[in-house]
Amino acid sequence: MIVTLSAVALFGVLAFVLLRGRYVGPFSALVLFLFGFFTAGTGAAATITAVCRAIAGAARQIT
Question: Does the reported pTM lie above 0.70?
Fold first, then answer.
């Protein structure tokens, strides 16, 4: 759960910076948000979560 909240905060800040710097337009941001939202509801959600947890575990071992 901690990894999920941290990832949400990280991606939220990144999205805000990209929108604020005009690197990404509002429509592109909406499309990416909806892609992530609908991907979370598919069978790929468990695999994506497992990959994120594995990367977080590997990062903990490095530091």
Answer: no
